[in-house]
Amino acid sequence: MLQVTENLKLPHALRSKYALLTSQVADRPAIIPEGFGAVLLRKAGILQSTEKGEDQKSGIYLLPEDYGYLAEGDIVRLSPRTEQMSVVFRRGTPNNSILLTERCNHYCLMCSQPPKNSDDGWLLEEAFELIRILPGDTENIGFTGGEPTLYGDDFISLIAATKANLPNTSLDVLSNGRSFANEEFAKKLAAVAHPNFQIGIPLYSDDPVTHDYVVQSKGAYDETLQGILNLKRFGVRVEIRVVIHQQTLPRLVQTCEFISRNLLFVDHVALMGLEITGFTRANLDILWADPHHYRNTLSQAVYVLRTAGMNVSVYNHQLCVVNKDIENECRKAISDWKNEYLPACDGCTEKAKCGGFFSTQIMYKHSEHIKPFN
Amino acid sequence: MSKFQPVAFYSKQPESASAQYQLLPFRFTQLDGSRYVATNIAGEYTILDHPTLQAFVDHKLPATDPAYVTLRARHFLSDIHSQMGPDFLAIKVRTRHERLAQWTGLHIFVLTLRCEHSCPYCQVSRQSEDKGAFDMSQRHAERGITLALSSPNPNIKIEFQGGESFLNFDMMKFIVETAIAWNAKLPQPKNLSFVAATNLAIITEEMLEFCSAYGMDISTSLDGPKDLHNKNRPRPGKDSYERTIAGIDLVRKRLGRDKVNALMTTTLASLPQVTDIVDEYLAQGFKGIFLRPLSPYGFAIKTKFFRAYNAEQWLKFYDDGLDYIIELNRRGVDFREHYASTILTKMLTSQDPGYVDLMSPAGIGLGAVIYNYDGTVYASDEARMLAEMGDTTFKLGTVEDSFETLFTNDTFLTALEDSFAYSSPQCNDCAFEPWCGADPVFHWGQQQDFAGRKWESEFCHRNMHIFRGLVSRMENDPFVKNLFAQWANRC
Question: Which of A53, B58, B105, B406 has its CA 20 to 30 A from that of A1?
Answer without folding.
Answer: A53
